[in-house]
Design goal:
Strand content: under 5%
Shape: elongated
Distance between the termini: 83 Å
Subcellular location: Nucleus
Strand order of the largest sheet: 1-2
Order of helices and strands: HHHEEH
Oligomer: single chain
Helix content: 55-70%
InterPro entries: Pinin, Pinin_SDK_MemA
Organism: Paraglomus brasilianum
Structural class: mainly alpha
Number of helices: 4
Keywords: mRNA processing, mRNA splicing, Nucleus, Transcription, Transcription regulation
Radius of gyration: 42 Å
GO cellular component, one term: catalytic step 2 spliceosome
Length: about 180
Amino acid sequence: MSAEVAQKVTAKNDNIPSQTLVTSSIVVPASSTARRSSRYDEDNHLKRRASEDEDANRDPEENKRPRLDMNNTELKKRSQRMFGLMMGTLTKFKNDIQNKTEARECWSKQKKNLANFLCTKTSPPLYYLPAKLSSTSLETIAEQKRQLALASSASAQVDDNNVSEEKEAHTMDVEMEDT
């Protein structure tokens, strides 16, 4: 009888398709390898860091994002709105710079006109022009014109630097808004 059972079991096993054993991929380290694993983690971290640096140095065409579908009406409206906001910001900054330069030009023109008059030393200064100019008053007017010329040339250099710095700052602001 045991032979019959053995034959039946063997027959059943023959009918079952062979199954492959899958071994576990989890490895439990021994306690003696703790130092080795910490070194391995450091080396692995350095390798990962090096591979990230290589990714950054790769061709930028590989890292490009896919194009947006411009057939989407919501996306189209959003992009038009963003473009309008950017253009409005640029126009505002352009107008601000233009207004400042016009104000400076007007101020310098007024200073040039006032340099032809005598100025009192009191506060507030009073500008006047006597009917007959003496030699001292002519010298004073000439000195005022020289000082104005020196001040205007120095302020022109400072103004040029300020305008270029303002333009750079505004372009940086716009670039920051883009990101």
